[in-house]
Structures are given as structure tokens and as C-alpha cells.
Write a structure and sequence with these properties.
two-stranded antiparallel sheet; binds zinc ion; about 80 residues; elongated; mainly alpha
């Protein structure tokens, strides 16, 4: 196995933690540093929280964008209707 592939695999493996209570492998980044089954803190310390773009509620942003585009479409239709 090449060095590059090995380093990628090691880096990927570093993001995981195993719970000593139930042996579950999980990613503390997405579980706030706790085991999703028993709530035990991840061994090796708590990982930093998610980056800002992953913490933002993208569903809410999508709904806001949809509402804005709907309003723009209504305005365009009304403008076209009353102008003609
Ligand atoms: Zn656990």
C-alpha cells in the first residue's frame, strides 16, 4: 500500500472513536463527543465542534430561499398582468 493511501486511511480512522462500554465505533464530531448509545464521553477527548457551514440549519435557509423566490415570482406575474 502506498504511503499516500496509508496516510489517508489513517487520517480517516483518526476521526472515529470506540466506546469502551459497548464497543461501538462512532464519530465524535457528529455526536457532540459522546457515544450515541450510552452517552459516555469519547475516549481521547472531545473533538471540536462542526465547522460553521455544517452547523447552519440548511433546511431553514432553503425554505427562506424558496419563499423569497416565490414572492419574486408573484411580483413578476402581478407586474406583467397589470402592465399588459
Ligand atoms: Zn457507548
Amino acid at each position: 500500500m502506498s504511503v499516500a493511501v496509508r496516510s489517508v486511511l489513517r487520517r480517516r480512522h483518526d476521526h472515529y472513536a470506540v466506546c469502551p462500554q459497548d464497543g461501538l465505533w462512532f464519530r465524535p464530531l457528529y455526536t457532540e463527543g459522546k457515544c450515541p448509545l450510552c452517552g459516555e464521553a469519547a475516549p481521547g477527548g472531545e473533538e471540536s465542534s462542526l465547522p460553521l457551514l455544517l452547523r447552519v440549519d440548511r433546511f431553514g435557509l432553503g425554505m427562506a430561499a424558496l419563499a423569497l423566490s416565490s414572492l419574486a415570482m408573484v411580483a413578476l406575474v402581478l407586474f406583467t398582468y397589470f402592465r399588459a
